[in-house]
Amino acid sequence: MTDKFVRALGWASLALGAVQLAAPRAVTRLCGVDDTPGATTVARLVGGRELLHAALLLGARNPARWAWTRVAGDTMDLGVLGKAAANRTGARRIRALAALGAVAGITALDVACARGGTAKARGPLQVRASIVINKPREEVYRFWRDLENLPSFMVHLDSVRAINQRRSRWKAKGPIVDLEWEAEIIEDRAGDLIAWRSVPGVGVSTDGLVGFTDGPGGRGTVVDVSLEYGAPGRKLAAAVARMFGEHPEQQVRDDLRRLKQVMETGEVVRSEGSPEGHRALRQLRQRPAQPIGGRA
Amino acid sequence: MKANVWMGRNRLEIQDVPDPQILNARDAIVRVTSTAICGSDLHLVDGYIPTVKKGDVLGHEFMGEVVEVGSGVRDLHVGDRVVVPFPIACGACFACEEGLYSVCENSNPNAGIAEKLMGHAPAGIFGYSHMLGGFPGGQAEYVRVPFADVGPIKVEDDLPDEKVLFLSDIFPTGFMGAEMCDIKPGQTIAIWGAGPVGQFAAASAFLLGADRVIVIDRFPYRLRRVQRTGAEVLNYEEVNVLDALRDMTGGRGPDACIDAVGMEAHHPTPAIYAYDRTKQAARLETERPYVLREAIMACRNGGVVSVIGVYGGFVDKFPMGTVMNRSLTIRTGQCHVQRYTEPLLQRIRGGEIDPSFVISHRMPLSEAPHAFELFKNKQDECNKVVLTP
Ligand SMILES: NC(=O)c1ccc[n+]([C@@H]2O[C@H](COP(=O)([O-])OP(=O)(O)OC[C@H]3O[C@@H](n4cnc5c(N)ncnc54)[C@H](O)[C@@H]3O)[C@@H](O)[C@H]2O)c1
Ligand SMILES: [Zn+2]
Ligand SMILES: [Zn+2]
């Protein structure tokens, strides 16, 4: 289910909400409930709720999750309209039944949309980030191509050992046990890009691609990284991210920033709260002039 | 070692904290001989700069003697006497190559936090919140100075501390404030704030060829001090500033306006002051932007508004219409100190200016909390305090 569709539902909510707030009487007539004293108030309340849905669906970064709020609203409306139809006769009953049918149709759409949205979140996790480094392309490429350098700026990696030109063995700190897997380089174009993936059947599935292009105005190098974690890898990524208290996206961006520090200044820049170097968690919780074997 | 430590809003304490250690190869440890209190520190003490934590060591204006250097430091040796710029800069990134040291791309290990608030991250600053790196400050006996081969400037022994200390911040800051005005002969520059930064801005505007400088404040003792630079003064509690500036410039307005007050400006009308003060206290807006608004309104068409007073977050009722329709230019930034240390040291050596003219109090570091009181509340005609550990 595409985000576009979700946004369309958002716009529908906005229109519906606006009508219900502006002309509640017309709405109650259309639904056949204009004979109940509190009906216009209910129509107004429902209108307000629709505006809330609209805000959630149109404003949120990941709108599909919020489609469930619409499903909840639909269920409420179905209940109200069902009761209205049961208690009425004649033209009013027909109008109430028509409204009931319409809402049921909308509910089906909303459920489909909400399920699509949640299902999508279970696919592979992709993260992308880029940075400009004030060094020639060749040099940055060469540093990365020596995969054993990666742990110097990627916080969650303990070590990477090259087995041969293509294969390497990776170790990462997991939340409970440490993780190990093998990866192979599947594409390698000197000065341009490196792509790798974990060897199938090792429990962790990750793909990575890093591209190197000339920086703006020919100054420096743009490093562009895309990582993808398959189902088992996804759990790893999420766990690691939790462990360091960071969003995976943020973590990759911070990793790249450390790469930049290493390339441009020689090492990861430390402040007092990060005595063992570059652990992101320590950096977030650092306290100047306090730890470092002191009284802390 | 002893250090001046932030323990909560308006709570400072002298505490024993661990001595700094070399963490990066390009670090040096400096034994502080003189350090100062800055208007920027007041924003921290008053709690308007986010991500300051209990136990943080304050201070970003300091100088001293190098007592230890890391393995990667060339050009700096144990025993050297140095003044240290307040922004930390690597000297190798794009920003540093452009001379934009206070937005160095490598010196802030907490860039991720700053990015969330500001979009992109500025450089690390000594003793100025975790968002800006979490580096312990200079109101201490010792400081670790990262990238020691880039920022610190060596000074010979014949110049006393008091003459060179302010190269660490306020002299370059005032100078940059004036430089951003693109001053041409015959021009009139108006400056809000007769604090030490405003005083250096006034002196620098004359160094850069301004014809007239008009400084605005409400403390007579500060206005008297700034008059010594040759500036004219306005007391905003006695006159309407906009009217007065119009009258003094033939109705056209000053060619450039410098905001040397920043986020904690005061307003002469109690009701308006109370309105923004309340909003700021409730953290609905982070600034009290009277000076910024007034500087914009006062500036002549096509002129420059140079903002060196510090702002931390978001401003309400910003007069964008007048900026746009009257072709104003706004220029601002934390000072790129490293750009100015050498040329300004030459001006000091050449006798063009003696920066010690701003000093009003000399006290031991152990009295820092009391010194802050005096400086914050403008008691005892306090203008600038130098502390010695
Ligand atoms: N950009 C930088 O790199 C940089 C560096 C140092 C300091 N600063 C900033 O410069 C500002 C001034 O620093 P300082 O050390 O001189 O501080 P200070 O507190 O000594 O001086 C501020 C002065 O502004 C005056 N003032 C307040 N409200 C005013 C108003 N409405 N109109 C006119 N004057 C008003 C006060 O009376 C006071 O004299 C601070 O915001 C500080 O953070 C910026
Ligand atoms: Zn300062
Ligand atoms: Zn830099």
Describe it for me?
Chain A: Residues 286-296 have a biased composition (Low complexity). The complex is a heterodimer of chains A (296) and B (389). Chain A is of the alpha+beta class. Chain A has helices at 3-22, 24-30, 39-59, 63-86, 90-120, 137-145, 231-243, 248-265, 280-285, and strands at residues 125-133, 157-162, 167-172, 179-189, 193-198, 206-214, 221-229. In chain A, β4 and β5 form a beta hairpin. In chain A, α4 (63-86) runs antiparallel to α5 (90-120). Chain A is elongated, with a radius of gyration of 28 Å. Chain B is built from 13 helices and 18 strands. In chain B, strands 3, 5, 6, 9, 10, 17 and 18 form a 7-stranded mixed beta sheet that branches. The N and C termini of chain B lie close together (10 Å). By secondary structure, chain B is an alpha/beta fold. Helix content of chain B is 27%, strand content 20%. Chain B has helices spanning 39-45, 94-97, 111-118, 161-164, 170-179, 196-207, 220-227, 241-248, 270-281, 290-298, 320-325, 341-349, 368-376, and strands at 2-6, 12-16, 28-36, 56-57, 61-69, 81-84, 87-88, 124-125, 142-145, 153-154, 188-192, 212-217, 232-235, 256-259, 304-307, 329-332, 361-364, 385-388. Chain B has 2 domains: 2-169 and 335-388, Medium-chain alcohol dehydrogenases, catalytic domain (Quinone Oxidoreductase, Chain A, domain 1, Alpha-Beta Complex); 174-332, NAD(P)-binding Rossmann-like Domain (Rossmann fold, 3-Layer(aba) Sandwich). The mean pLDDT of chain B is 95. The interface between A and B is large, with 36 and 41 residues. The structure holds nicotinamide-adenine-dinucleotide and zinc ion (2 copies). One zinc ion is lined by residues 89-90, 92-93, 95-96, 104-106 of chain B.
